[in-house]
Amino acid sequence: MNIKKAAELSGIKTDNIRYYEKIGLIPKIARTESGLRTFNDKDIKTLKFVKHMREAGVQIEPLTRYMKLVAKGEVSSKEARLEILQNQVDQLRHEILKKQEVLDYLTYKIEHYDEVMAPSESDLIDLYLEKQLEEK
């Protein structure tokens, strides 16, 4: 099947498929004599796996390392593969904690709008108006 059909079946844009192949995230795709990519069911399965991992928050570089280890098929690389995944989990947890802090901060601002936000807004408005007058 061609790249358009592969994109449709995998849910990955054609440009991303080309990029993933270029950087080695997915194996080289077979080509016709005229140079067009021709995908098989295994390629689609690989693309779907990559899509799910990306949706799970795994970044391109670690996923590429992971996929290269998987491609080797060595049982001995299991620890390295697990380490890559664990690092991604740790990073995602860190990002979630940061997002939670931001959410808590904004929630506080909303819940205490009159005491916290309103006074600073009037200062901001005054500053904004001053800057506009200076520009004229």
Write up this protein:
The chain has 136 residues and is mainly alpha-helical. The chain has 2 domains: 1-55, Multidrug-efflux Transporter Regulator, Chain: A, Domain 2 (Orthogonal Bundle), CATH 1.10.1660; 77-136. Helix content is 76%, strand content 0%. It has helices spanning 3-10, 14-23, 41-55, 60-72, 78-111, 113-135. Helix 4 (60-72) runs antiparallel to helix 5 (78-111) and helix 5 crosses helix 6. It is elongated. The termini are far apart. The relative contact order is 0.08.
Question: Could you write a compact summary of the structure shown?
Answer:
With 136 residues, the chain is an all-alpha fold. 76% of the residues lie in helices and 0% in strands.
- Helical content (DSSP H or I, runs of 4+): over 70%
Strand content: under 5%
What is the radius of gyration? 24 Å
**Average pLDDT level:** 92
Question: What low-confidence regions span 5 or more consecutive residues with pLDDT below 50?
Answer: none
The helix-strand sequence is HHHHHH
Give the biggest sheet. none
Globally, the shape reads elongated
Q: How many domains, as an integer?
A: 2
Termini separation comes to 62 Å
Structural class: mainly alpha
β-strand number = 0
- The number of helical segments is 6
